[in-house]
Design brief:
12 helices
Length: 258
């Protein structure tokens, strides 16, 4: 009579899951540590950093007006929150590297070669998007709002609400400028073809204006300032994807549909 061996597959799977969870915790701790170190280094200049952040709004307030702190603790915690955002932005290369290092073992060799271009381009485009929001969108929106202020109403804002608005804009435009990276990666990995992305162009245009209507203030100027760059960046992604897409997909995209 043959003795049945015990099934150890469940134990092996459990060990594998525990190993992944331990590695994930290690990656998260390293990312958090990078953010914390930069945050502590910037903490001394928190007032100057928040002052630079508030400058587009202050420049468009009436002479003698200031921003408001309606909550008892806002004047203390709001600058800290923004410094934390700046620290996270500066530490983003470390965070992206840790995330990629976690998923890299499950990728093919040709996929691993994308790590440096993806991390570098993603970070640069996120910074460019945030800078576009700060130097172009903020002054345009605040100047428009100041011009539309009714007679007898003083334009002012609470610093907590301004922080919420600013971070929403930074995140929205930062992610919007990631569109070329997303398009190139999806095409390069063969998840979608260049021809499919071109067919989806009308839906992208509609989606861009829908997203802009949701995440930006309810004025046409700010919505156009998000929707138009999103569409243009999608087109830029399509242009770059022509050079990185598999040859068969590139040839198919150039073939006119019948």
């Amino acid at each position: 009579m043959t003795q049945k061996l015990p099934d150890t597959s469940n134990d092996t799977n459990l060990t594998g899951w525990m190993t992944h969870l331990i590695e994930l915790r290690s990656r998260l701790m390293k990312s958090a540590l990078a953010v914390l170190v930069i945050f502590l280094c910037l903490l001394y200049w928190r007032d100057d950093i928040f002052g630079a952040f508030a400058k587009p709004m202050l420049d468009n307030l009436p002479a003698g007006s200031r921003m408001l702190s309606l909550d008892v603790t806002s004047n203390f915690f709001v600058p800290l929150k923004f410094v934390m955002w700046v620290a996270f932005t500066l530490a983003l290369p470390v965070v992206l590297h840790q995330a990629w290092s976690f998923i890299a073992p499950g990728l093919y060799q040709h996929e691993k070669k994308l790590v440096v271009p993806i991390i570098a381009s993603s970070y640069i485009l996120f910074i460019v998007g945030s800078a576009f929001a700060y130097f172009f969108v903020f002054p345009t929106v605040f100047k428009l709002m100041a011009a539309l202020t009714p007679i007898g109403v003083e334009m002012a804002t609470d610093i907590d609400k301004y922080l919420s608005f600013g971070l929403t804009m930074f995140l929205s435009f930062g992610l919007t400028f990631e569109v070329p990276v997303v398009v190139v990666v999806l095409t390069r990995l063969g998840i979608v073809t260049l021809a499919q992305l071109k067919v989806a162009r009308p839906y992208v245009i509609v989606g861009a204006f829908a997203i802009a209507a949701v995440v930006t203030p309810p004025d046409v100027a700010s919505q156009l300032l998000l929707a138009i760059p999103l569409v243009l960046l999608y087109e830029l992604g399509l242009f770059i994807a022509r050079w990185v897409a598999p040859k068969a997909d590139a040839d198919l995209a150039e073939t006119p549909s019948t």
